[in-house]
What we know:
Structural class: mainly beta
Largest sheet: 5 strands, mixed
Number of helices: 1
Helix content: under 10%
Shape: globular
Order of helices and strands: EEHEEEEEEEEEEEEEEEEEEEEEEEEEEE
Low-confidence stretches: 317-333, 337-361
Radius of gyration: 20 Å
Strand order of the largest sheet: 3-28-27-26-25
Strand content: 35-45%
Distance between the termini: 40 Å
Number of strands: 29
Amino acid sequence: MAAVLTPTAITLLQSSSLKHPPPYADPTHPLASRPSSISWCAEAATLFLGYAHGALSQYDVVAGTSQDIPLASRPSSEPVISLLYKDRGATAVYAQGQQVVVLSVATGKPTNTFDSHKNPVTSLSISNDSSLLASTSAHAIHVHNLTLASHTVLRGIPAGGGIITTCAFHHHSRTRLLVGFGSQLLVYDTTRPSGPAKIIDIDKEKKNIGTIVAISPSPFSKTLVAVGCSGGTVALVDLEKERGLFKVIPMPAPITCLSFSAEGAAVYAGTENGKFLLLDLRALDKPPKTVTIGENGDRILAISVQKKLKAGEVVAKPAVAASSSKPLLQRDVNKAAPPRPSGSSEAIKKPPAKDSGYGTI
């Protein structure tokens, strides 16, 4: 199932209907306030929503009901962007302005904040084991170790006039981080922060495809990545090939967001003019299938896909997240956590250094 977010509503598209997509889809749940981000917590059957005025809410997919997440304090009225979740929905992670917030959903209180960027944060991504959090601003990439309470700055960003637009941890590799920089895809190994392991030019033929706006690693393949560009292009990249780029597919409208389907057989893309595009990877010679979302042709802000739960995972509602106040430590963010005595808990109060401060952590 896929959740499509527009400025006025959530539209849910069932996986069964996407095998033969309808030409038009009615909104599932209208929104009174303008949203800014969405994240699907499959374990809790819940959609987390962030809003342009700084609020948060939850939408229960089964019951079809929505409720606000009460915030103990609201230090910022800036838009909630790049909303994520961890701990089976007990913890929300999002950015507002220059700050990254880790929030207990049950209490509405931050258990952690990061204020290490000089410019507004543009994107966030969590590693496959939920231990590493990447944050980007226009000219910086930071990786925070949520377990060890440490952070580092990734270097080696190419010179030029480009800006960093988005990032995504690879689903199959804890330390592989993919970063959109102009029309270039930077592939980092976060254990080697001095520079990207590979740089792939999506616009090597100079067709002015625009900037990278979305990156989605395949949930099935360990090497396949889909990249959406603002000019109306989806690029398929094989990270293990020497040149990386192996297929560039023109789309009928500018791309705003992109995601693989849960099983990895298709790529979903949203457009500026309210179209949901389905690209079947087994039929790349055919144009993408199109579903019109709503009546107004509103921009699709985000697409969030319900992941397939692993064996043993059960639907669970968010629980209280622990918090404490140990200071930030300067350590290697890629190392696993040392053993702890049972019952112990750690969190961060002291923020890391600003963009210019790099250290071996």
